[in-house]
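Re: beginner question about structure tokens

> Can someone show what the tokenized structure looks like for a real chain? I only ever see the sequence side.

Sure, here's an example I had lying around. Input first:
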Amino acid sequence: MDWQALQEGCRTCRRCALGDTRTNVVFGAGDRGATLLFVGEAPGEAEDLSGMPFVGRAGQLLNSFLDEVGIAREKVYIANILKCRPPENRDPSPTEEEACRPWLEEQIRLIDPKVIVCLGRIAAARLIKPDFRITKEHGTWFERNGRLITAVYHPAYLLRDPRKRPDLQSDLEGICAKLQQLEQG
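And the corresponding structure tokens:
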């Protein structure tokens, strides 16, 4: 499947009930050849309205952290496990995740990133391991399918608990160091 077919299939998807309640599919955005892929759990209201990932308050916070560590947002790709917003921003259901997972898997295949960063506990539990503990394991590196993968606090969580901001800063600095290490060798 190529990008055009993938986007069209996703845009018309009705594999779960969220296809009936969405305003827009939030497919993903960024550099399709990126070394670094960020994956969140699901779009929020601002994302559902715009059709773009991480454009609300959490996205603005993520952008500021990326700027601070020298990661250009246009050089990464950002997607979510779900491509449609769950009502009232509730957690994705297992049925919704299973219905949407093939879209993300195909995005990963096409992008072929070296590093995947899960934004938050839910994405980490789906992509790293089911019992992932974000408070204890954020910033820890795992290998999955030949790729390095880690998780950081979700920016929306930092809006509620700013005390975790230094953890995100430190984790992003570690991600930058890992990327440099991969480039060198």
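Each token stands for a local structural state, so reading them left to right follows the chain. DSSP finds nine helices and six strands in the chain.
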